[in-house]
Amino acid sequence: MSNDKQYRFGTKAIHAGIKPDPTTGAIMTPIYQTTTYAQSAPGEHKGYEYSRSQNPTREALENSLAALENGTYGYCFGSGLAAIDAIIKTLNPGDEVISTNDLYGGTYRLFTKIFQKYGILFNFISMDEAKDIEQHITKDTKLLWVETPTNPMMNIIAIAGVAEIAKKHKIKLCVDNTFSTPYLQNPLDLGADIVMHSVTKYIAGHSDVVMGAIVTNDKEIADQIKFIQNASGAIPGPQDCFLVLRGIKTLHLRMQRHCENGAAVAHFLKDVDIVDQVFWPGFTTHKSHHIAAQQMHDFGGMISFSLKENTKEAAIAILKKFKLFTLAESLGGVESLIGHPASMTHASIPKAEREKIGLSDSLIRLSVGVEDIEDLITDLKQALA
Ligand SMILES: Cc1ncc(COP(=O)(O)O)c(C=O)c1O
After folding, report:
1. Which of 76, 81, 148, 185 has most ligand 1 atoms within 8 Å of CB, for mutation?
2. Maximum distance among all alpha carbons in the chain?
3. Are 209 and 200 in contact (CB under 8 A)?
4. What confidence score (pLDDT) does residue 6 get?
5. Model-level pTM?
6. Does 106 sit in the ligand 1 pocket, CB within 6 Å?
């Protein structure tokens, strides 16, 4: 449990969950690279029995993440998908989930290819208008699944509006907050019951760790997640927890620069001849800009754009020209990355489904890093000339 909620974000990023090591006074949380812990008699121990169940490095990180999301209970997993897996495992066969139809391809794959087999039903809908969700709710609906901004179309979903509907129907709401990070948006404060992260992205921030996390204020949900974390065992190792603890200390500084660079890149792209549409919630012309402005502190460094020549070939020809933006899966690291969702991150979504949400063949996604903006614009200029 975390008691660090009272601090402002930058202070929490540096201090929350962290205590000097009780044996040495080490300021940085040690990497407790141990599977087990000495007991003085059977069942008599210092709170740690076996590292799948408890590990002090992981515990420090879980408390830090809980504090950053203004939550009470935090749990870490071996990947973002392992965290999502744990949340869906709280459901039973016959239960239904209503999810945003524009979401990370791996989440879609986990829902449709793994959990559907076990009798959990998934209904993918547009949540552009929160009130439209109600008509899809049945007596079996147990969970609403929201990503905002969505990946990769940068749609914005009104978390408070969806939370109101969830509460009215006694359904839980989970928000995948990966794109925003707790620096930009705090879903629990807006009424969500669970917030989930691919820690792999901005939170770790250096493209060197794969990890997931869940934060909640709800003791019943926390107990279920803790049970599944231990029973299914998809935990991260202590070295990775250490790296993420280190990454978090600069989360606020990195996010500030991601946002500044993101805004500059989005405005640059808007005036490029061969570019058709630019998807970034910071534009006042974005259909849900007003919601983004309300629920986010800034607009982030994720941008998608389509080309007037709407073909995969045109997109790929351009991707090959970049020198500084690296063509790669993933996002949220300090370095700028570029990707082609239709053939990379979202290839597991059928083409017909992709096109329904506007994920066209020419769509290119940028994760704008924290390099000097002049160099990023120079790279974009030469690639899009
Ligand atoms: C929004 C979102 N959620 C979840 C995930 C899955 O996280 P991981 O790759 O850490 O399993 C990703 C990965 O790209 C993502 O972008």
Report:
1. 81
2. 73
3. yes
4. 78
5. 0.96
6. yes
Active site residue 176: yes
93 neighbors 226 (Cβ within 8 angstroms):
no
CB 13 within 8 A of CB 252: yes
Q: Rounded to 5 degrees, what are φ and ψ at 222?
A: -60, -45
- For the chain, the helix, strand and coil percentages under 3-state DSSP, each to the nearest 5: 40, 15, 45
pLDDT of res. 347: 83
d(CA 87, ligand 1 centre) in Å: 14
Residue-level pLDDT at 3 = 58
What atom of ligand 1 comes closest to residue 211's alpha carbon?
10
Q: What angle do helix axes 80-88 and 219-232 make, rounded to 10 degrees?
A: 120
Given the residues 5, 7, 52, 276, the one annotated as active site: 52
Q: Going by DSSP bridges, is the β-strand pair 337-339/364-367 parallel, antiparallel, or unpaired?
A: antiparallel
Query: Does 201 qualify as catalytic in the annotation?
Result: yes
270 burial (CB, 10 Å; 0-12 / 13-18 / 19+) is: middle
Strands 172-176 and 141-147, sheet pairing: parallel
Distance (Å) of CA 95 to CA 68, 91, 162, 189, 362? 31, 6, 19, 26, 37
Q: Please identify which of the residues 201, 257, 354, 365 carries the catalytic annotation.
A: 201
Of 362, 384, 302, residue with least CA distance to 104: 302
Secondary structure of residue 53 in the 3-state scheme: coil
Q: Specify which residues 194 forms β-bridges with.
A: 174, 216
Would you state the structure tokens that stand for residue 359, as one six-digit string? 């994920």
Q: What is the pLDDT of residue 1?
A: 41
pLDDT at 354: 86
How many helical (H) and strand (E) elements, i.e. helices and strands, does the chain have?
13, 12
CB 200 within 8 A of CB 211: yes
For 353-365, the DSSP string reads HHHHTT--TT-EE
**Distance from the CA of 310 to the center of ligand 1, in angstroms?**
26
pLDDT of residue 102: 87
Low-confidence ranges of the chain (pLDDT < 50): 1-2
Return phi, psi of residue 282, to 5°.
-75, -15
